[in-house]
């Protein structure tokens, strides 16, 4: 089994960041914002993350648990920091445009996926590499299928996966090497 301790902090960061980026990319892939759509897709993604904490593959389970612990630590740090309650302190860089951008965010997810897969190819067991790739694809697939998309206007029929979502899934699949 591949252990998370086998990786440098930067490599581990990529491995842990990729699932969240894949989830975010999947919620934005069809480019049609909507509160209800976002809630359904995010809830579906959270369900896949929770299931991964009980995954049959020990590596996936350890990644999911490390993500859970990371989120808890970030929440505790935010609660403990008085500056976090006030806003961004002076001298701290603020991202240029914090709003979601479907093209930028899906491209980032694909790039991060490819980078994390490359790291795992060098150091992980083949079984763990395959399970990680399958898990990332499962996150994306479940999220894009959580809501149906309408393409072509008001009277068009709903599709399980829109063109933009399918393009995103295809790019992710290629990044994973399938």
For the biggest β-sheet, the strand order reads 1-2
Structural class: mainly alpha
Beta-strand content estimate: under 5%
Please describe the biggest sheet, giving its number of strands, its sense, and whether it closes into a barrel.
Answer: 2 strands, antiparallel
Overall pLDDT score = 87
- What is the radius of gyration? 17 Å
> What assembly state would you assign to the polypeptide chains in this entry?
single chain
Number of extended strands? 2
Q: Which blocks of ≥5 consecutive residues have pLDDT under 50?
A: none
| Helix content, binned percent | 55-70%
Distance between the termini: 22 Å
The total domain count is 1
Order of helices and strands: HHHHHHEEH
Total count of helical runs of at least 4 residues: 7
Question: What is the global morphology?
Answer: globular
């Amino acid at each position: 089994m591949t252990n998370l301790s086998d990786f440098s902090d930067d490599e581990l960061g990529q491995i842990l960041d990729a699932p969240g980026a894949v989830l975010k990319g999947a919620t934005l892939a069809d480019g049609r914002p909507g509160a209800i759509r976002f809630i359904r897709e995010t809830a579906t993604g959270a369900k896949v993350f929770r299931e991964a904490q009980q995954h049959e593959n020990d590596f996936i389970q350890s990644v999911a648990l490390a993500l859970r612990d990371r989120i808890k630590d970030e929440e505790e740090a935010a609660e403990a920091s008085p500056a976090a309650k006030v806003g961004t302190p002076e001298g701290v860089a603020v991202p240029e445009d914090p709003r979601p951008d479907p093209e930028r965010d899906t491209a980032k997810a694909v790039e991060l996926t490819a980078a994390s897969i490359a790291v795992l190819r060098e150091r992980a067991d083949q079984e763990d590499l395959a399970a990680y790739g399958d898990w990332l694809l499962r996150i994306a697939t479940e999220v894009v299928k959580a809501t149906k998309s309408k393409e072509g206007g008001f009277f068009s029929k709903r599709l399980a996966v829109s063109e933009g979502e399918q393009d995103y899934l295809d790019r992710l699949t290629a990044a994973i090497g399938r």
